[in-house]
Amino acid sequence: MAQTGNRKAAGNKKRDGQQNKSQVVNFKKYRKPLNLNIGMIIFGVVFVYVVVCVILYFQTSHIVRYEVQEGSLVTNNIYHGVVIRDETVVTTSTAGYVNYYAREGERVAKNDLVYIVDETGRLSEDLQTVALGENSLDSRDLAEFRNEIVSFIHGFDSKNFETTYDFKYSLQNTLMKLANSNMLANVGSLGGDGSGNIINYAYAPRTGIVAYWMDGYEELTAQQVTTDIFENKEYEKKYLFSNTLMASGDPAYKLSTNENWSIVFPVEPTRGAQLLKEGYIKVKFLKNQYEAWGQVELLTNSDGNTYLQLSFTNSMVTFLSDRFLDVELIVEDETGLKIPVSSIVQKEFFLIPEEYVIPSGNSGRGSIVRQCYLEDGTISSEMLEIDLYSFDDATREYYLDSTILNTGDILYKLDSQDTFTVSRRATLIGVYNINRGYADFKQINILYQNEEYAIVKSNTRYGLSVYDYIVQDASTVSDDQFIKQ
């Protein structure tokens, strides 16, 4: 019985195990099916296309068209120059108080009285005790003041306010000289033996125009001018006043001994070369709007910079009190076809004598007869149509494209057995014209240029015309390259 019970229990356990095993479920992860949407496909294709286009855009050069127009370059014709004169500094021979007699800007002859030296210093006090009567300014004196005031008004610049002090000193000096010219008429009555005054008279050593200021540039020449002169912030103009104590050997005044004078200022080499061709240039002085003609000379001084010198033969006394002047050059700016400098390129050509070229009217095209070989090896000739890029009137030669001809090609003269071997080359300056849809070289004749634009001659036989389209940046194309419009 016990064994029977054990078998029943074992059978029950087996059935329970089979039931538990049958109840075990295997779960698999559900994968959502990929539903391709036509909109997403189109978006992906467009996105890839845009990315590729952006990459290609930054990796390729871009050809920009430029329409040729008539115009001129706006140039700055106002320059700041230093004045060069023949100046002689005259020093005092005795110590004492100097009182000037000659007026500034007045021409004195040799041995004319310029100033007196009061060794005791008592002359000024004695002059005050003399009844000089009522003093008044004559028309000449008033004109002198008027000219100084008008010159200051026209030349005043608020950015350069120190000129106001120069004007103040100039008026003060002029007033004292006018007063001294009246007072010195009484010097003779005060210089007797019993007066105690020791007065020395100083006379001009030579003929010249008197000036009573110093700045250290009295011996400056045009060849000695450098940029340091224009950048010198320590420049000082020292005025000489009457009744000033001076030691023996001190500068008393200076004489401008020549009516010829000049202005020197820095200039760009290309601009200077253009102005040099003028020979003479009309100049307006901004200080007083005075106009004069100056002879042009171009200088290259010790600092390696280029300077323009304008020489004048009159009006030196008008600017006797100035070392630096602002001038405006009244010149006609070059007009023509205006193109960007970036469009200019140089190209090499073969030089062919004119008798070996058959021009086709004024179309800029022509023909040549070149030697060739047939299939059986016999020598023959062929006629080629070509573009003519320029013609040299001096050598009577045409410029032909070096991509059509080769060195060593033999050309025939029309209706003749004479031959010419292609070899000589030369370069032309030009731009790429794209009117026909491809890069076509056109020669240009540059009249003037700056850093951005150039003015070229218009209506030339092999050149440009107004409203032509050219490549703005010549480095982005090659010869005969097709241009997408």
Characteristic key phrases:
single chain, 485 residues, alpha+beta, nine-stranded antiparallel β-sheet, 22% helix, elongated
Account of the protein in words:
With 485 residues, this protein is an alpha+beta fold. It is 22% helix and 34% strand. The strands form 7 sheets. Strands 20, 21, 22, 23, 24, 25, 26, 27 and 28 form a 9-stranded antiparallel β-sheet that branches. The chain is elongated. It starts with a helix and ends in a 14-residue tail after the last strand. The mean pLDDT is 81.
What's a concise summary of this model?
This protein has helices at 2-22, 38-59, 123-129, 139-155, 163-183, 187-190, 227-231, 269-276; strands at 65-67, 69-72, 78-84, 87-91, 96-100, 107-108, 113-118, 199-203, 208-211, 213-214, 238-239, 244-246, 251-256, 261-266, 280-285, 290-300, 306-312, 324-330, 335-340, 345-353, 358-359, 365-373, 379-392, 397-401, 410-412, 419-421, 425-433, 440-443, 446-449, 453-456, 469-471. The chain is an alpha+beta fold and 485 residues long.
